[in-house]
Amino acid sequence: MNDQGKTVSILGCGWLGLPLAEQLIWSGYQVKGSTTTPEKLNLLQAKKIEPFLLNLADSAGLENIPSFLDADSLIVSLPPRLRAGQGSQYLNQINLLTQALQQAGRVQQVLFISSTSVYQDVNAVITEAHDHQALKEDNPLRQAETLLQQSTAYKTTILRFGGLVGGNRHPGRFLAGKTNVPQPQAPVNLIHLDDCLRLCQEIITGPGQNEVYNACADHHPSREEFYSAAARALHLPPPQFNSKEPCSFKIINNEKIKAAYRYHFIHPDPMFFF
Fold first, then answer.
1. Of 77, 71, 78, which Cα lies nearest the Cα of 31?
2. Other CB atoms closer than 10 Å to residue 83's CB: what's the count?
3. Within the chain, where are the H helices?
């Protein structure tokens, strides 16, 4: 498919957004990228990304948003920072974004980068069809999904990634040297950056659709097996696990996205991520 002339805007040029922008440019797209950091504007420009300084947390910093949303597709790759207690602020940002999308009226396709953290631990395999049983409806990411899905002005694809690995995110550092780590036998649900990038491009290249996809590697080694091996790969002390409490887990099924795009994961087994 020739994508010459198509414009994609990426809200959030961080761990995922920046390499995704580079990949899309290489494929012939025109790419606009946003950052909240003035110092990063030159980096974006150097990579042939049209740079925008946008901060949805500050209504005074939205003067550029109509131009930013003058695009065929929008990829929302904003970190929600839920562990920092910024869930309500994140929802306010997504609400502002949906209003701006309605006013701009140009974007036809939205790809929202979500997470499998919207699912509860139900000690079972979870597919997209199990939404009503397993979803944490009070999770800010889940609420953000709903906000975007409510609009009929554009089509929204929700892409729920497992735990993110690759680039500067080496899993050997995540738990190295820690003690009393819970859930040693719980299976991991992880995805490598290479697959994140490829799947995003598959979705953007195709027609816009109102769909939800889970995306994580095919295999699910235990937390103890995976994080111990990852730490040793960096010559770091492996974590010490506490096996006394009952195992609580979920296994994320990825069959829907593989069938929809005839996709084979580049990194199907997390034990070979490092």
1. 71
2. 7
3. 17-26, 41-46, 65-68, 87-104, 131-134, 140-149, 193-205, 223-233, 255-261
Contact 30, 9 (CB under 8 A): no
Task: Please say whether the beta carbons of 188 and 239 come within 8 A.
Answer: no
pLDDT for 62 equals 84
Residue 4 pLDDT greater than 70, yes or no:
no
Number of CB atoms found within 10 A of residue 75's CB: 27
Q: Which two tokens stand for residue 156?
A: 């929204």
Lowest mean pLDDT among 13-17, 22-26, 86-90, 237-241: 86-90
Confidence tier at 68 by pLDDT (50, 70, 90): very high
Confidence class of residue 1 from pLDDT cuts 50, 70 and 90?
very low
3-state secondary structure of 161: strand
pTM of this structure: 0.95
**What are the tens digits of pLDDT across the range 142-169?**
999 999 999 999 999 999 999 999 999 9
Helix (H, G, I), strand (E, B) or coil at 20: helix
Amino acid identity for residue 163 in this structure: G
Element (H, E) at 157: strand 155-161
Separation between Cα atoms, residue 133 and residue 139, nearest integer Å: 14
Q: Tally Cβ neighbours within 10 Å of residue 203.
A: 23
Structural domains of the chain, with CATH: 7-171+189-222+249-272 (3.40.50.720)
Please give the backbone phi and psi of residue 150, each rounded to the nearest 5 degrees, phi first. -75, -20
pLDDT at 59 over 90: no
Sheet holding 109-115, edge to edge: 50-53, 30-35, 7-11, 73-76, 109-115, 155-161, 211-215
